[in-house]
Design a protein that fits this description.
By secondary structure, the chain is an alpha/beta fold. It is built from 18 helices and 24 strands. The strands form four sheets. It has an eight-stranded antiparallel sheet, with helices on one face. A six-stranded antiparallel sheet has the order 5-6-7-8-12-13. A five-stranded parallel sheet has the order 16-15-17-18-19, sandwiched between helices.
């Protein structure tokens, strides 16, 4: 939620009246464009530029220029074109997902101090802002917005006016703040400097050649550098063109961990697709293949060296609890079937935001698996903290290097899906299932639940999945057509059983979030306990049919469920494997997927559902990549 970019570079070589904004603005706008998925209610920039030319070593006096607009980034760009800002050695930019105060120009960031000399941007929620605001109002400080952030602008501005340098002021103010925040500030007295701080909210540093960067995630500066630093909890960073200094809120120096981003700017572009989502759906074979890459030794045994978790911990694990939200939780739900089957360890799947409120039973033998694409979902972060406080070990499955969730976990297993920009998660889901399966097989291998050849067989099946997913993609035309036919539906239902159940839930989630239409996923067996009453003439129902080779009579039962709804007027769209003719009598349309082993089926059956949701949204003229009210990275609870 909210995207943040900061830039400190060389003093401009052009005069302020020359090309508007120059490098500083270009960097910040490029960063905001890449971060817009994090929030798109409003956008704004601030630069500290020389007010009266460049002559003399320190330049002349400096002035703060702030431009901000409600709405998408394009509105900010129009405003900057109409009224350019001068080039500068330091700039900050923000794209907002509104929390305190509606999406208006006044509530857009940056916010400025009462003296107009400092600008600040913020991601997160300042929980004690009301008390701080009351104090400031009592002292006569004028407020111009309804945001919690403006409090910080006034507090920082006042601290600098009282003689503190911007870094010291940031440390002082942060110590008084409660809640979650990433803050970036610039001040006219510190030209060429950006100061950032973080608590419970993401911030990474990009190390350039003669310029340095700050961002909510590495996408902010990936077009400029792949060398980055992770910032820890309660740390302040000060960047100039040539220096990066990090301290704790207490002033103690800190040496942050350096890392290199393993993807480049091209990976974050649309690559000829109309939507990022379409591109990301098409990247799914690669996401699965890359997540499997380099995980076996010469003998074919599974090695997960990067886990860096004591194998004794994994051997003694007697319960696994998966914590995640949304699509990531459904990936966990799929994994439950596989891990319990392979390892004989009970697996619970819990929505992260519910986890700590139900007082879960955790011991040192509990392994908590936290799944997150962004690595920043605050509900998951808080659940991880709770689990660790209770003595459980936490293993993160994450797609984002340098993110909070892997950093706060005992161990991490990365998915290698590459950057996921569309708000709706697709390739991360497949990569998460793949990573969870690797973890399950690894545990089974370690604990002796499976023989080496059994592990090798399943690994071989996993390695076959990129081709199977590609086959589904190659056949997606029929689903695209269907989406256009059904675009005016009022409601769509999804039925599945076993691993098809979380797939049904995921199909419904995709349709809700992208096409804004009522959709529900059900365990097909639950139908007769109530939901079948929803079925009326013409009701579209997707039925995810398991392989005839799956457990017991599962296949026959799901086919019966399809017949039951069809008998009551439903229009059934049946997803079934090649050659399964038993479904023909219960389907208005059969969408074929390649024949794969039972536990691998979610990797193929979910794909038509993703394509369907994207196409329905597209047919309705909606913004597929940035659905209303949502943000990619949910960094508030
Ligand atoms: C749905 C979607 C969300 C995320 C959820 C968790 O398409 O994208 O439901 O899956 O917000 O996000 P991460 O995986 O970043 O923790």
């Amino acid at each position: 939620m909210c995207g943040i970019v900061g830039y400190a570079g060389p003093r401009p070589t052009v005069r302020p009246s020359d090309p508007a904004g120059g490098e500083a603005l270009a960097v910040v706008l490029e960063g905001l464009r890449r971060l817009e998925y994090r929030g798109y209610d409003s956008a704004g920039v601030a630069v500290v530029a020389e007010a009266d030319g460049h002559d003399g070593p320190g330049g002349g006096a400096h002035a703060l220029h702030v431009t901000k607009r409600a709405g998408r980034l394009a509105r900010l760009v129009e405003a900057l074109e109409a009224e350019p800002v001068p080039d500068a050695a330091a700039a900050i930019g923000h794209t907002r997902w509104a929390t305190h105060g509606g999406p208006t120009d006044a509530n857009a960031h940056p916010h400025t101090s009462a003296d107009g000399r400092l600008a600040v941007i913020h991601n997160g929620i300042i929980e004690n802002y009301a008390a701080l605001k009351a104090e400031l109002l009592e002292q006569g400080v004028p407020f111009t917005s309804q945001t919690d952030t403006e409090v910080v602008a006034h507090l920082l501005g006042r601290a600098v006016a009282a003689g503190a340098d911007l870094t010291t002021a940031m440390r002082e103010v942060c110590r008084d703040l409660e809640g979650a925040f990433t803050l970036l500030a610039v001040h006219v007295d510190a030209p060429g400097t950006v100061v950032g701080a973080r608590r419970n909210s993401p911030l990474v540093v990009g190390l350039g050649d003669g310029a340095n960067y700050l961002g909510s995630d590495v996408a902010a500066f990936i077009g400029r550098t792949r060398d980055a630093l992770e910032l820890g909890q309660d740390q302040v960073v000060t960047i100039t063109a040539t220096s990066v200094e990090v301290t704790g809120f207490d002033g103690a120096p800190v040496t942050p961990r350096a890392f290199t981003v393993d993807w480049d700017a091209a990976a974050a572009e649309k690559g000829g697709y109309q939507w990022y989502m379409d591109k990301e759906i098409h990247e799914q074979p690669k996401a699965v293949a890359d997540t499997l890459l380099g995980r076996t030794d010469a003998s074919g045994a599974l090695v997960l060296d990067e886990l860096r978790m004591d194998t004794a911990v994994l051997r003694r694990t007697d319960k696994i609890i998966v914590i995640a939200c949304g699509t990531a939780a459904y990936a966990g739900h799929v994994a439950k079937y596989a891990i319990e089957h392979w390892c004989r360890i009970p697996v619970e799947v819990e929505l992260a935001h519910e986890f700590r409120y139900r007082d879960p039973v955790l011991t040192e033998r509990t392994l908590v698996v936290a799944i997150s694409q962004s690595g920043e979902t605050m509900d998951v972060v808080m659940a991880i903290r709770h689990a660790r406080e209770q003595g459980a070990k936490v293993l993160a499955i994450c797609n984002t290097q340098g993110a909070t969730i892997p950093r706060e976990s005992d161990a991490a297993l990365y998915t290698h899906a590459g950057p996921e920009v569309a708000v709706a998660s697709t390739k991360a889901f497949l990569a998460q299932i793949t990573a969870c399966y690797l973890l399950g097989l690894y545990l089974a291998q370690l604990r002796g639940n499976m023989f080496a050849d059994e592990v090798r067989t399943v690994l071989g099946q996993l390695h076959g999945m990129p081709d199977a997913v590609q086959t589904v993609l190659d056949r997606s035309e029929e689903v695209r057509k269907l989406a256009h036919e059904l675009a005016d539906s009022k409601s769509v239902l999804f039925l599945g059983r076993h691993v098809g159940f979380p797939v049904a839930l995921e199909g419904a989630l995709k349709l809700k979030e992208l096409a804004y239409l009522h959709a529900e996923g059900f365990a097909a067996g639950e139908l007769k306990h109530g939901p079948i009453a929803l079925v009326e003439e013409g009701q579209p129902v997707f039925v995810i049919v398991p392989s005839p080779d799956s457990r017991d009579s599962l296949h026959a039962k799901v086919v019966s469920n399809a017949q039951e709804v069809r008998a009551r007027g439903a229009r059934t769209i049946v997803i079934a494997e090649d050659g399964d003719d038993a479904v023909l009598g219960s389907a208005d349309l059969v969408v074929r997927v390649p024949r794969v082993p039972t536990l691998m089926a979610p990797l193929v059956t979910v794909v038509p559902l993703q394509v369907f949701a994207m196409e329905v949204a597209s047919a309705k003229g909606l913004d597929v990549d940035q659905p209303r009210n949502l943000a990619k990275s949910v960094t508030v609870e």
